[in-house]
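Pipeline run #58 for the internal structure catalog. This entry was flagged by the ingest filter as a single-chain record with no existing model, so it goes straight to prediction. Upstream metadata was stripped on purpose; only the residue string is passed forward. Reviewer on rotation: M.T. Logging verbosity set to normal.
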Amino acid sequence: MSQNKINVGGQAVIEGVMIRGPGKYVVSVRKGKKIISKEGRIPSKPARFLKLPFVRGFVNLADMLVIGIRSLMWSAEQAAGEKEKLSRKEISLTLLVSVGFVILFMIALPYFLTHLFGFAEEKQPLIFNLIDGLIRIVIFLAYIFAISFMKDVKVLFQYHGAEHKAIHCYEHGKNLSQENVRKFTTLHPRCGTSFLLLVFIVSILVFSILPSVMLHYLPNFSALNPWLRKGILFPIRVLLIPLIAGISYEILKLSDRKQDNPLFRLISAPGLLLQRITTQEPDKSQVEVAIHSLDRLLKIEKNQFRK
């Protein structure tokens, strides 16, 4: 990417695309024959600590979750109409239930299933976490594959593909036209789908080290009741998520810049393969929305820079 270009990213929303830059984001959706947009500000990070490697990854992830949820909720309101607008209480409850399901099915269930299979985390950390990680990945892949057959999700995946195509076009220095955008692939090494898969892989390595560290620095840890040890190790796993996200973010950013390197192409390969499900070829109207969102974001960021 040339020096005069800014880093952009985004996500698909209901009947639209959200594109974010360093300081602003724009979410655009199709409403009938019109495209309507909403813009917002990304919180600045005055503290240098928040910009350090391995810290910035979790901070950026938190920002993207907040912005992504806001964009998704706004797009849902446009699709449903003002009469069906969700209240803050309903939104909070939905988010709380979603987080609960993620912890239950993506962290707790694989962890305790691995124990039921007869593997001991303290005695066989590598094998235990390999099985635990594989179960987690299988659950994730099964969920993605299952929802991909839903009509609304297929449309969402098409907008996801449109977002990637538009970003590729911009990063390659081409004019944002229908003809240029449609030439590019729907796959992108810096995608959130790839990030999630990378998080699962990195967690296997980090969690494999955890029991050994506990046994080394806490001599009485091995003498504790087995269920008490599990009760200590499991919450620590949850607390290590920011570190895992930070490591995964740095690997993702590096692999995106080093696609000419065979090692980093190999690292990107599983995520790109998964994107063959989570991104679909968009139609002309969907590409138009992605172009609209990206073009508006670039104009806003350019004006902001001049100020």
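catalog note: Residues 9-306 form one domain.
catalog note: The chain has a mean pLDDT of 86.
status: ready for reviewer M.T.
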